Predict the structure.
Amino acid sequence: MKKTAYITVIGTLPTPARFDLDETRLLGEVIASGNSNKSTNFNYAAVNNEAQLQDMVQSPNFVGTRIVCAEKLFKKYIFFDGLTCLPNLPGFTSFDVDADNCSSQFLALQLALYIKLDTVFLLGYDISKTKELELLKSTMRSNPNTKFVYVCNPPRTNQLDDLPNGSCMFYAKLQELIDANKQ
């Protein structure tokens, strides 16, 4: 795999059936939000829900995935292979968000920023809830040197247009980028 400046966060919404999530690994690291797309192998998965974590540690699709979980869950499941405790991430303190109670996609986003790559692709990232949209926008404002690309199907969303480091891309364009990285 080529070394890239991309990281992909897979949110909690389903991605289009015709889009192969496995191919996103050609762009770089991929972080899943909980077990919402458990038919694919990922580099990382972020989780703070006990039922999802139990499902993940028993699922063959998460073998080889570094499952990053909130401290409370990590202490309870420390003896399972592949578990890592979520590091102390500045986003939680800055936004007064509890890692045990936020959405798994926000947890995954904070982990992506901790890894510090230039561009974060957001696939299936649910911004229909006001709180999720505001947390995403606040995160984008707090990380002005990181480019955030919200990937969606037509029609394009305009909800991130007010931020200079935010953009929207259709799945077809992302597939073109993936195809270019295959060569």
Summary: The mean pLDDT is 89. Residues 6 and 28 are 5 Å apart (CA to CA). The longest helix spans residues 130-142.
